[in-house]
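Session log. Operator J.P. requested a structure for one protein chain; no other inputs attached. Running the standard single-chain path with token output.
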Amino acid sequence: MAASSARFLPAAFGLFCLLCGVAIVEGMLRAGLLNRFIVPLPTEVIDSFGRLFGDEQLLARFLTTVQETFYAMAILAVIGIPVGTLLYQVPVLRKATETWISALASAPIVLMYPLFLVIFGRSPATIIVMGVIAGLPPLILKTIEGLSGTRQSLINVGRSFRLTRVQMLTKIMLPAALPTIFVGLRLALIFALINIVGVEFLINFGGLGQLINDLAERYDMPGMYATIVFVILVSVLFFFVTERLERWLRRMS
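Structure written below.
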């Protein structure tokens, strides 16, 4: 029982701190220390959730963003993990490109959206491609890191069984690198989601990002802040789900 309580204590303390912060902001706004034309009352933000689900079709827009993110993640997994594996297997190619991939991870990818608007038009394809490009660098780098960190004892066992290079990779190295690869997938998910919502906002097309744009243009500050909070909650949910999936796969392997 004590162990169970200790397990949930950090989350409970974090929630308590969050509620305290919200209460402080509410008090400062009501006291006139903050401008209510810029920051709405937290109670107004909470109250606007019902209106967003009823009038603004928040759930449908959420599903649109989730669908775009799912497609982006599927493409990322199909491209990112094999590319990372290839760079690990070919050291010369890795040395030639790893620095550029690292630089791409910190680049403001979202600013490339006009180029993809020209190529794909104002469509979900532009949003998905932007999410894929944003998520590729962390996934590739983490795949390389995971394969490079395979314990030498495991590699020696594979050699003792005279495994081929492909067998060594599929039966030993990739399973051993799975935790690190999943860290890359989680990072890629966050990068992709941020860029997907950002591009939706910029081109006023799609799901949650378009809703934030619409509410901002109508100067519906409580609704806009509520949608932003909802996007944050979606990010937390995605991160939690992928973490659970990683633990399940580690037990299965």
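Operator note: Residues 165-203 form the longest helix (39 residues).
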